[in-house]
Design goal:
binds zinc ion, 3 helices, 46% helix
């Protein structure tokens, strides 16, 4: 476990945050997942193959392994996926509305840069 990177975006304020998967850095996420998972190293030496193993040490190893995988995926997500407070998300908002808002803002900036004309081509854009 000590080979893993520390959690950087852990929030201690109690604010529940949601991942914005539509804004994921997918290449970074895949790369960080690979790098972090590669640091997990376990050598299980269980000789039980034909029935369930009940050795508590082996069961504990599996729990540790599971938690390391979850932590690795969480770290990769925290490094590459923006998060916002859950109450900041509007239930009616969508990716399409994000695109339209961005388009509207860019056209507004063009209009302002043109001196906020009351007529002319910058109003037609
Ligand atoms: Zn076992």
């Amino acid at each position: 476990m000590s080979a893993l990177l520390p959690l950087e975006s852990r929030h201690t304020t109690g604010v529940i945050r949601d991942y914005r998967w539509e804004k994921v850095n997918i290449i970074g996420f895949y790369n960080d997942t690979r790098v972090i998972l590669d640091k997990i190293d376990h050598n299980f030496s269980c000789e039980v193959h034909d029935f369930l193993c009940c050795d508590n040490n082996h069961l504990f190893d599996i729990d540790i392994y599971y938690n390391e995988i979850v932590l690795a995926l969480t770290q990769a997500a925290n490094f590459n996926i923006p998060k916002v407070p859950k109450n900041a998300m509007k239930h009616y908002w969508s990716i399409t509305l994000d695109e339209l808002k961005g388009y509207s803002l860019s056209r507004y900036r063009i209009w302002v840069a043109a001196g906020e004309p009351k007529q002319g081509i910058s109003l037609m854009i």
